[in-house]
Amino acid sequence: MIGWRSRRWEVLWLVSAMALIAFVVFPLIFMVSTSFKPPEEQLLAPPTILPVNPTLDNYQSALGQETFFRYLANSIMVTVATTILSISIGAFATFGFTRLRFSGRRTLLVLVVLGQLVPLAAIAVPLYQMANGLGLIDYLPALVLAYLAMSLPVTVWMLRSYMRNIPRELEEAAIVDGCTELGAFWRIVLPLSAPGIAATASYVFFLVWQEFLFVLIFTTRPENRTLPVGILDFVGQFETNWGNLMAASMLMAIPAMLAFVIIQRRLIAGLTEGSVKS
């Protein structure tokens, strides 16, 4: 009886996992398939899973857009700048939270946690007013600052789970050997936090790369937009070119996939260590 119950739960977990995988993977399969379909196959009823007459015309059309590579360059610049700044500022802030003792430390940490719970739409208006006051509206630095406000709370919170578990004796030994506190942070804490930094950096990268709302609010000129908003050029008032839209979406996903492949080992190690330590 116990063996039957155990098998029943195993079957239930397996079916649930397969359903979840299908729910996640099917939209991706549909996007890839549609990107290779000619116009006459895109709106067939019932739709076909695989294209009958695959074509690369949709990709050629997407890459042929004059503004596509401009959107791509803007996305890369904004995402890379935000990731570097968020990790740099977040690492120093996290070191202060985990190593320094000062009045109001717990209150500030609680505010950081609350910063993760605030919806983006709630901070969009105050951030817009600040950027407008600084004369940064319709400039890429405005997006970087907005994304820093969005990503720094989660950066600090994720890095904190790694730095607080690094033994202080290692830093004290380095200081005894002649290092300053900053030197101990640079030579001891940061290298030991490398898996956590990789996991956090990848999260910030993916978060910023696909962000849509702030780009729509902070930019008005097409040349200053990033890919998530730029691919809306394929959505017309009376019709949508689904093949071109899916092809542009696939091209947009390639940099994120490449980034994941490059850092997947450190990402998995960072997520595993962080979950175990937490």
Can you offer a commentary on this structure?
This protein has 278 residues and is mainly α. The chain has one domain: Orthogonal Bundle (MetI-like fold). The protein has helices at residues 2-35, 39-42, 57-64, 68-99, 105-117, 120-133, 140-163, 168-176, 181-192, 194-209, 213-218, 227-230, 242-277. α3 packs across α13 (242-277) and α4 (68-99) runs parallel beside α7. The protein is globular and about 75 Å long.
Give the key terms.
278 residues; 13 helices; disordered C terminus; 76% helix; MetI-like fold; mainly alpha
The CATH topology assignment is MetI-like fold
Number of alpha- plus pi-helical segments: 13
Name of the CATH homologous superfamily: MetI-like
Overall number of domains: 1
**Low-confidence sequence ranges:** 274-278
Radius of gyration: 23 Å
- Strand residue content: under 5%
Count of individual beta strands: 0
